[in-house]
Design a protein that fits this description.
300 residues, mainly alpha, 76% helix
Length: 300
């Protein structure tokens, strides 16, 4: 066979040999890196369609509107008034936004491998939304005189909220242990029960069962909750300052209810409204950098 023909035959066989050769083996590290990139692209697409920031801002806006209307009512009650249910409209929108936030968080911020975590978050969000809706409706009906229930019955939905919060906190215990934040868990657990104790005292006070107990002692658990946050949580100038202002407003609220002061209600609630509005602006200007690595699983 001539040399040219032999060289041509070799060139024709090279593609066939290359096609028949086994594929290049992918190392474990390369495979893991490729899988990580795929997950990162997938979760980035999910976050791009997330409405979590919008729903969070909307919830804060509902609270700001409610407190603003309440402040206006207290300031103008001697001049004119309006139906009580108007004040509660923002609080009736809030449960819907809370449920949307819970479902969005479960869909975009929790790993697909943590199916149980998704279920827990969605169910907890739904139950909390229903409890808040009934809670606000009962209070509105009581103030309007539609029902003659005692205040301890009107505040009953809060106890359902407390039960849901306890189950949700128990579910999060492994996560607190994993990041070595067990002390934070106990702080949150104690604050939840302090809030429950305060609501119990408020109900008894409004029913006339605690006529000799001043309002300052009734809302004392709220002061303790804020003090615990100031002492136990990370020291940040802005956060600490906001908590200190919030504590001052709660002290002024107790003094105002006990008739020890006659300050304008705007001075009592105005700083709280400003702080919530400031948080709303911070959320609006935030970024999704913390989530670019993809959602994290929730451990049991």
């Amino acid at each position: 066979m001539p040399a040219d023909d032999e060289e041509t035959a070799v060139q024709e066989r090279e593609p066939l040999v290359a096609a028949a050769a086994p594929p290049k083996a992918v190392t474990f590290v390369e495979g893991a890196h490729q899988e990580h990139l795929r997950h990162k692209v997938k979760y980035a697409a999910l976050i791009a369609h997330s409405k979590l920031r919008a729903t969070s801002v909307s919830m804060l806006l509902c609270v700001v509107i409610f407190l603003s209307i309440l402040t206006a009512r207290l300031e103008l009650m001697n001049l004119f008034s309006w139906p009580v249910y108007i004040d509660f409209i923002p609080l009736w929108i809030l449960p819907c936004l809370l449920y949307l936030t819970a479902t969005d968080f479960a869909a975009t911020r929790i790993s697909t491998e943590a199916a149980l975590g998704k279920i827990i978050v969605v169910c907890a969000g739904f139950l909390l939304a229903v409890d808040i809706l009934f809670f606000t409706v009962f209070i509105c009906m009581k103030i309007e005189g539609t029902v003659q229930w005692p205040w301890t019955v009107v505040l009953a939905p809060f106890w359902a909220t407390l039960v849901v919060a306890q189950f949700f906190l128990c579910f999060l215990i492994p996560g607190f242990l994993r990041v070595d934040k067990l002390s934070t868990f106990f702080m949150i657990f104690g604050m939840v029960w302090l809030m429950g104790f305060m609501f119990l005292l408020v109900g008894l006070k409004l029913d006339g069962d605690l006529p000799g107990l001043p309002w300052c002692l009734i809302i004392l658990p709220s002061w303790l909750m804020i003090l615990v946050q100031i002492v136990a949580l990370e020291k940040n100038v802005i956060d600490t300052g906001c908590r200190a202002v919030f504590l001052l407003c709660m002290i002024l609220l107790g003094l105002q209810l006990d008739k020890h002061t006659s300050l304008p209600w705007l001075l009592v609630f105005g700083p709280i409204i400003f702080i919530i509005f400031l948080n709303m602006v911070i959320v609006c200007q935030g970024s999704d950098d913390d989530w670019k690595e993809g959602p994290k699983g929730i451990d049991m």
